[in-house]
Amino acid sequence: MAKSPADVKVSVLMPVYNRQDYVAQAIDSIHRQTHTNFEFIIFDDGSSDETPKIIKKWAKKDNRIRIVTSPKNVGIVAGRNALLDECKTQYACWQDSDDISNIHRITRQVRKALEGFEIVYTQWVPFNARIPVYTEAVRRPPKERNTAFPSGFFDASKAPQFEAKWRNNKFPTTVSGEDALWFRTFKRAGARYTTLPSLLYYYRRHGQRVTDWKKNPELNKDWYKRMCNSVPKDQVVEKDSKDGPGKSKS
Question: Residue 28: which of 80, 96, 101, 93 has the closest Cα?
């Protein structure tokens, strides 16, 4: 019997370090998801600001949130590895602590993953101070489409098959731009992947991001574009269903 999308439990994985100004908005965007069957695992990487208080307050409000705390700062790569260790569901997705997800994001990604895709990305748009409206899913024109790596939704149960090539699907501790390597490794292992045409992820621009294009010229947009354009034509999604505006949850 085919699995119903609503029955799919998803692990939302979010590493966070000193994001007191942004983390509440990131958490709220997951709290409001129209797909409600998820566990939200937050890895606090030894934050020294108000971040621990903020995420603990949210955990009291939403029992789907589980916090894993590191006694010291171990870095984004070790943080992502810890989250992979904590993930016990077949499907998982990333959520950066300074970004915002459209409330229909997980619903759309679950639906597409059940068609046989190991990785499902979404369209993204950058923003600065102004908070975007993230209750409406907008289909982007083909010429304006772009893939956001933090929007990745993936089949976590496939991790063991990559062991021989890449440490059981974990991130090498010496790599900058770990999300790009994560995608490249899945691709080389033969994973079927796609990108939804709808705008479902909002990437916040600020000076404290781990991935900074100016500081990491090797991770330039042209490189990302080449990776995205390498998706086989039969794996590119040209249509997805329309969801109406979501309603805020208390």
Answer: 101
101-157 per-position pLDDT tens digit: 999 999 999 999 999 999 999 988 887 756 666 666 666 666 666 666 678 899 887
| Paired tokens of 50 | 């108000």
The torsion angle over the Cα atoms of residues 185, 186, 187 and 192, rounded to 10 degrees, is 180
Q: How far apart are CA 63 and CA 145, in angstroms?
A: 35
- Domain 8-235 grouped into CATH 3.90.550.10: yes
What are the CA-CA distances from residue 139 to residues 36, 121, 163, 237, 240 (Å)?
A: 23, 14, 37, 12, 9
Does the model's pTM come out above 0.85? no
Q: Is 117 helix (H, G, I), strand (E, B) or coil?
A: coil
Instruction: Judge contact between 192 and 118, C-beta under 8 A.
Output: yes
Helix (H, G, I), strand (E, B) or coil at 86: helix
What the block records as the tokens of 93 is 């997705």
CA quadruple 151, 76, 203, 42: dihedral sign: positive
